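CHAT domain-containing protein
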Amino acid sequence: SEGHANLPTQLHNLALSLGKHFEHTGNVADISEAISLLQKSIQLTSDDHANLPTQLHNLGLSLGKHFEHTGNVADISEAISLLQKCIQLTSEGHANLPTQLHNLALSLGKHFEHTGNVADISEAISLLQKSIQLTSEGHASLPTKLYHLGNSLEKRFEHTKDAIDAHSAILNFRLASTSLSGSPSVKLYAAIHWAKSTMQIDQSQLLEAYNTAICLISQVADLDQTIKSRFTKLINISLLSTCAAAAAISFGQHSMALEWLEQGRCLVWRQINDLRTPVDDLYAYDRALADKIVQVSKDLESAGSRAELNIYTEDISLLTKISIQNEAHTHIKLAQEWEQLLTTVRSKPQFTHFLLPPSCSTLLKDLPKSGHVVVINSYGNHSDALILTSGKKNPLHIVLPQFTIRIADKLHHDLKVILHDSRVWMQEDWDTVSSRGSRRCKEGGITDILQQLWSSVVKPILNGLGYSKPLSNLPRIWWCVTGPLAFLPIHAAGIYKLSGSTAGICNKLSDFAVSSYIPNVSSLIKKTHNSHNINQEKVGLLMISQPDTPKLHPIPGTTQEVQMIQQLLSKFKIKHLCLESGDATVSRVNDEMDVFSCIHLACHAAQDTTNPLQSGFYLYDGRLDLSSIIRKNLAGADLAFLSACQTSTGDEKLSEEAVHLAGGMLAAGYQGVVATMWSIKDSYGPKLAEAFYKNLLIPKAEDETDSKRLSSDGAAQALHDATQEMRQILGDSESSLLTWVPFVHFGH
């Protein structure tokens, strides 16, 4: 009833639930209703009631959230007044006081961002300093408060240019990120701010800051989280490894740069490989130790999350006060236990690098014996190439001064415009005639992009490798690229507009090397180790053809495509099976994939960049998604040919994660993958596929058996030859380039 003694508490708790609902939905009506309920709860509460500070505090926080959504400065002004009154009503030694001071400081910081009044941010700094003084050493909330203090000092420095504030900000970011206790996520963001600040003020700490951040990445994105949640977190930190690598290179630490790129890139696909997270190998070795690692990791994150909770319910009991006083000791013990567990795990011979980046020496030692891996890092006003060659002790560094991140972004943008205008970018942009998305395009465009990639990126690298003339047997180059370069066709770099003076000169990458792409260096090493473990009984090709998938545009060329391949396989007496139209159900294809080492998918495809494991291939009765392929733990998977739309392009926000179907098939266990960067003409797909398998199946040695030729080992060369044959037929026009350039090889 209206006058019931419990009504204020009930209104207050309902408001908290609405506030939590708002955080998930973003529906302003929820937080508006929460504010109204809290205001009514306060009206029904006497001025001397013990719960009043709590109600004032939570109303202040709710108004702050409302301000973030609406920008109404009256909301944040009222929030500040309420939080100030809350603190006035709270005794000096009260356990909630540090949190109240912290939240008032954050509200003042929001007000400062709106008004630019330096008095606001100065008061916020004083409040944060007092909150930190009242927080026990080792408490899980301490890194969060130190982080916010660093942010506030940084904001004031931007206004006043007082160097003391800048150095104090760096100190607090450092203390937050190196704290034993607290949320790994908060510590990671503190480390990122530490690195950014020290880059501008005091570069002597730069490598230490980045090393701290890189080591924290694995804790944030690795252990025992869903794949979707890991990708969500990585959107915010995907550029960290490229920034860190650029810093290491600037200090001449090329091996460190490589190690940081390996640690910070492709985290999720690296874990998916062989259905393993970093702890799965440990589970097989010592289940109890693995369980403990996962539990302590969870406890560290949840302890930090609890400490960051800004809303609390009613006034605390004596028992809770005692519990809070003991929290600092618990958090310190938890952090110490984590370090001890890591030491224990790393003392085992096979786990010496558990949650650590692979060492440069290990990467170089285990590379393929021939060819080169070229890692390109683009950041700021230049790019760098690190060239890895088996038998070398250190990477070879080549500066690419003419290729900046801005140029890479522009080329990526230009390519998207060209593809859009040519109707070969989006899957839904189907031509009115039978096509996997292609129309004739205007002359000029992609040739300029390929020429700039040649002159600014590829030619300097080839010069550094000493490739002045083509070799009779072209060497392999595995390209491992970062940022917007992940969306550019480096493999086709060259000069295609030939004048009389340049005709006959070798000025294309394809003249000098056979190109492949890899998500990271570790993936190539893993594929190299596993490349000869294919069960000969499984050697064969499963072909999927979907010329008339229900509710999707017809692509009748897929029938011709698989018929041509079938004829070749029959000629060489290689095991094969073709499932077309209604025969290619999700269940049937799933079963047959266990029987064949190779798969050819001539069908529509879909990429879900918000949840990459839901990406997949459209079959007759539904979508075969990556998650079901990966769950199969395909033993003996070898080669996948994805004759579908846009199977090697990914999410721009996560270019460091290789979020595309080709990367997913590598993660599922396939040694090599042929894919496309954009959609292709239905008439040319079958011709290139036929040329690819012809080149793959032609005997390379007298004693080579037919079955041995159907292997990922020769796939890169076979694709190289097939695309060059198509180029010889079609010429070097814009439409020709758009036809063969999209075909790419990934993996071993």
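thats it. The mean pLDDT is 84. The CA atoms of residues 402 and 456 lie 5 Å apart. bye
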